[in-house]
Fold each of these.
Amino acid sequence: KLFFTDYGNAAKVERCDMDGMNRTWIVDSKIEQPTALALDLINKYVYWLDIYLETVEVVDYQGRRRQTITKGRQIRHLCGLAVFENYLYTINTDNLSILQINRYNGTDVQALARLDNAKEIRVYQKRTQAAVRSHACEADPYGMPGGCSHICLLSSSYKARTCRCRTGFILGSDGRSCK
């Protein structure tokens, strides 16, 4: 799945399949300006920052079990969001510090370090990477991903895929080759 935020006419947190199909709103009320998003891949939770409402909130992948992690004026100065183990990590653009927030007790906030001009944060650690099983976009014997001549996108499951073409090409009637 692909998760994303939108704060256009109607602010929301959404998800869809990797090929853009099955677009679903998972949060569409009491949300104004969601600017950063992080996923807990193990427990299937979506965290986001709302800088207008000054909150950090969480829901499950279906949009249920919504909770506010922390709330207050300091949220207005945050950008980027990552989750690892018991903590959320974000950047405070007011003082350029990396913040660690206990995701179960939002009052436990610590500044870890200063970084100049940081706008995003990511955690790279083996335990944050989901195990990869064989999938529909693996290279075929000719080296084509999922048998697609240009682009292979996972669809509704790891067993399904959709072929797409680069700009200037159209998908052939076989659903795999681009012309």
Amino acid sequence: MGDNAVLTCPLKPNVTLVTWKISPKVEGHCTLGYRADRNETDRTSCSGSMNWKFRPDLDPALEIRQVGIAQEGNYTCEVVSGEGNFHKMYHLTVLAPPQLSLYCDEQGNPVCEAAAGKPAARVSWVLGSNSPLEEQGHISGTVTVLSRLTACSTNVTSTTCVVFHPAGNWSESIGC
């Protein structure tokens, strides 16, 4: 999330037409088109964050700037040339790294929270614990995961929470 994405399209000689058909999960469909005989580009209902990476006659790649969850969906490139018709399809999935916070609750128990991750993060404790996880889904498609370490013995001065996520892994320690 927040990075730029470039989706490539088959580059063929004697291209006559290139079309990107974009079907995001959230927003409406849009298309980007290029006609070689007129050296003309056209766009229908595409946001300003989606455009040709370079000139479509030289490289028909699509660039999506500042990728967000709203851009998740299917992207299909169609190329028409003297060699035939070619298609390339992508399914874009956006990862949102969670925000890690570690604190002590009112009872003095360590609490580890991985907020607004996509997909949901996995949370565990280095000391090992079967602490139940609480998950809260958000309208944005992200998930907050919270774990409360309640099986901590009195002689432990510090414990470490570990968060696993496809966008990265993090750990943090706390003493309550």
